[in-house]
Amino acid sequence: MLNYILISITAFILSFSATPIARKLGLQIGIISRPSSSRWGIKPVSLLGGLAIYSGLFLALLIFGEKFKFNQIVGIFLGATIVSFLGLWDDMVSLKPLSKIIGQMLATLILIYNQIQIELFCWNFLNIFLTIFWIIGITNAMNLLDNMDGLAGGIGAIAAFFFLVTATLNGQYLVGSLSAALLGACLGFLYYNYNPATIFMGDNGSLFLGFLLAVVGIKLRFPDRPNEITWAIPIVILGVPIADTFLVMISRLRRGLNPFTTPGTDHISHRLASLGFSSKRAVGIIYITGIILGCYSLLFHCVNINFALSIILEIMFLLMLLTIIALLEKFFTN
Questions:
Q1: pTM for the full model?
Q2: Which residue has the higher pLDDT, 219 or 226?
Q3: Are 204 and 87 in contact (CB under 8 A)?
């Protein structure tokens, strides 16, 4: 536990210190976000915050990380670096979605080669397919969630905290160390990114954050619990980005729009703002939702399978409710 604290504090200090440098660099070389209807109330702001998160996290792990399986940590580092680089490239020249997906698939295949994959089925090809779907899905879900000041960074920190608690309870050092580093790096960046933000994480940060959270979800293991419960935990912890992506995709498909290339103010955060909440309160409500889901996830350690499955059904009901909201969108948006 002491090592987790050291990793988290170090990642926080490094990220906190590097963010002003990244902000200044982004403004100097022109990697900035310009005002757009797809983002809520922005002005030209540096997009290099992801570099501060990246450097804070990896330096903290290099300083205090130990007892890692060498091939797995190298695979995670390499995959995350590829994803972050693609995000940076997209921030500079705006890549086509297919190019980013291909790069994310390559990063995922590197994980699979290093034996980091989902293990639910007897047939390995199904496990590989589900691994690719999970990694790419969560990676892009965090990218989509980055639409208001402090939102993606805050939800990333909340998810990392509950992954850290879960890993500590189960003695999983790799998951705990990654989660501790993510928590510290996100909080260090969030100081500058919370409303009103002076820097954004950009795609280089949101894709990187999503990729690592997806990896942590895969590495989480509970040998004494059924697979249904084991996999319910990361799904519940990451319930906010999953639900937001689900809502946006249903909403855009209903309107005949490409859900991957069409920007818009149709996220949960935007809908809360359209109902009269300020941006800060909308983000705060989503934070609280993330915390509640994280607390729900901790119940899976001490409840029987029937109760755990009832929680899963409640989450499925929430997704159905979001679908109905998307189908009745004209009542919620202009």
A1: 0.89
A2: 219
A3: yes
> Would the CA dihedral through 184, 190, 192, 198 be positive or negative?
positive
| Least confident window among 60-64, 158-162, 329-333 | 329-333
Q: Residue range 166-187: average pLDDT?
A: 91
Q: What are phi and psi of 37, to 5 degrees?
A: -70, -15
Q: Which amino acid is at 176?
A: G
User: Contact, 182 vs 208, CB < 8 A?
Assistant: no
> Do 75 and 195 meet the contact criterion of CB atoms below 8 Å apart?
no
Angstrom distance (rounded) from CA 180 to CA 94: 32
Contact 233, 212 (CB under 8 A): no
* Residues whose CB falls within 8 Å of the CB of residue 9, separated by 6 or more in sequence, listed in order: 184
DSSP assignment of 42-95 equals --SEE--HHHHHHHHHHHHHHHH--S--HHHHHHHHHHHHHHHHHHHHHHHH--
| Token pair for 165 | 């608690």
CA distance 177 to 187: 16
User: Can you tell me which residue has the tokens 């809360």?
Assistant: 272
Distance CA 127, CA 107 (A): 16
